[in-house]
């Protein structure tokens, strides 16, 4: 994002305030950015978390766009989200008991 700012480029960003996710489960849709005040400027960079949907991204980005993605292993991604979003509080998970000392 710093690069975009320094080079006068526009970013596709979620219209949901204070969010860096478009969605973690639903494929990207043009409507996820539709109506943003900066939409009329066009976009240069899409750099946030989303589920890839080539057709929808092509509708938002310029024709000569280059696609680069980081694909994470599902277990690694879940562990990261679990910690980041503090899921243990929302799904009432408790710590695993060390079975070596449980007997």
UniProtKB/TrEMBL annotation:
<keyword id="KW-0472">Membrane</keyword>
<dbReference type="InterPro" id="IPR027417">
    <property type="entry name" value="P-loop_NTPase"/>
</dbReference>
<comment type="similarity">
    <text>Belongs to the galactose-3-O-sulfotransferase family.</text>
</comment>
<protein>
    <submittedName>
        <fullName>Galactose-3-O-sulfotransferase 3</fullName>
    </submittedName>
</protein>
<dbReference type="GO" id="GO:0000139">
    <property type="term" value="C:Golgi membrane"/>
</dbReference>
<dbReference type="InterPro" id="IPR009729">
    <property type="entry name" value="Gal-3-0_sulfotransfrase"/>
</dbReference>
<keyword id="KW-0808">Transferase</keyword>
<dbReference type="GO" id="GO:0009247">
    <property type="term" value="P:glycolipid biosynthetic process"/>
</dbReference>
<keyword id="KW-0812">Transmembrane</keyword>
<keyword id="KW-0735">Signal-anchor</keyword>
<keyword id="KW-0333">Golgi apparatus</keyword>
<keyword id="KW-1133">Transmembrane helix</keyword>
<dbReference type="GO" id="GO:0001733">
    <property type="term" value="F:galactosylceramide sulfotransferase activity"/>
</dbReference>
<keyword id="KW-0325">Glycoprotein</keyword>
<dbReference type="Pfam" id="PF06990">
    <property type="entry name" value="Gal-3-0_sulfotr"/>
</dbReference>
